Structures are given as C-alpha cells and as structure tokens.
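Name: Mitotic-spindle organizing protein 1
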Amino acid sequence: MGDAAVAQANATLDIVHEIATILDTGLSKEETAIIIALIENGVNPQALAEVVKQLKREAAVLRMQHQAAQEQDAST
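Structure predicted for Mitotic-spindle organizing protein 1:
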C-alpha cells in the first residue's frame, strides 16, 4: 500500500471513529479499526454488532461483580 493509500485509510478511520464517538458507541479507535477490518473480510455487520453488544453487557456484569468484591473486601 502506497503512502497516499495509507493516508487515505487513516483519514477514513478517523472519520469513522468520529462517527462512532458521536453515536456514543464507546469504541476506541483501535476497536473501530478492528471492526472495519472484520467487515472488510466478510463478517456480517449485524452479527458483529450483536456480538459487540453482548460483550459489552458481559463486561459490565464482570465490572460490577469485581467492584462488589472489592467493596466487600474493604468492609472486612
């Protein structure tokens, strides 16, 4: 990939990440790039969106469990 193509890809990533930020997806620039690559490689966007939402829900549950365990340890 030439310098111009790399610059264009980076500019596109910046724009897509800005859109993701405006939509409050909570995705980092790196995560946005990974999602773009997955879609470019044939992953179904709707299925990918469902997986991302499920992972976010599971991560939130784990964070709450971890926080509760820390609070319990602090109180003993």
